[in-house]
C-alpha cells in the first residue's frame, strides 16, 4: 500500500485496472483460439504480397482454337492429377465482429484480493509513474571550441549572477535578463516538469540530486 500511495494510485483504481486488463486478456485468448493460421498460409500470403512478375501479355481468344483441339478423357484425367491444387477451393473463414463494452464484460469477472496482489506484483512496471522534477535554470553558453581565454567571460558572468542571488536578487528576474536559453528565459528560467531520461545525463544528475529548492 505504501508503494500505491507513492504512485498516487488508489486501491479501487488499481482493482479496476487489473480487472479490465484480465478481461482484455481473456477476450483476446478466446478470439485467438477461434482463429487458426498455418505456417504455410503465412508463407503463401507473404509470397503473394511480395512476388514481382515481369511479363508480356498477349490476348488470345480461346474460341478460335476450340475446334482444332481434341482432348481425350485420359488426357483430362492426367492433367487433373498433376494440377489438383489449381482446382482446390481455398479454406475460408467467416467471422462476425462484435463491439463489446468493457463495463458489460468485466461485471461478471470476480477477482480475489490474492489474485489482485499476484497480478499487481507481476506487473509493477505498468503501475509505476516515473519521478519528475521541476527546475529553473540560467544558461550561460560556452562553445566546445572555446579557448581557455574565452572561458573566462562566461565564468565571470556565472560568478556575477551567483553573487546577485546570494545578495537576495530574484532568480526569475535574473533568468530573464541573463539566460541564453531563450524559451525558458522568457518564463524566468522555468523548464517545467521532466523525467530523468528527458534531459542530458549531466543535467539530470544535477537536477535529481537536489533535495530542496534553491
From TrEMBL:
Gene3D superfamilies: 3.10.50.40, Porin chaperone SurA, peptide-binding domain
PpiC domain residues: 130-214
GO terms under cellular component: plasma membrane
Pfam annotation, one family: Rotamase_3
Compartments, as annotated in UniProt: Cell inner membrane
Topology in the lipid bilayer: Single-pass type II membrane protein
UniProt record similarity statement: Belongs to the PpiD chaperone family.
Protein name: Periplasmic chaperone PpiD
Originating organism: marine sediment metagenome
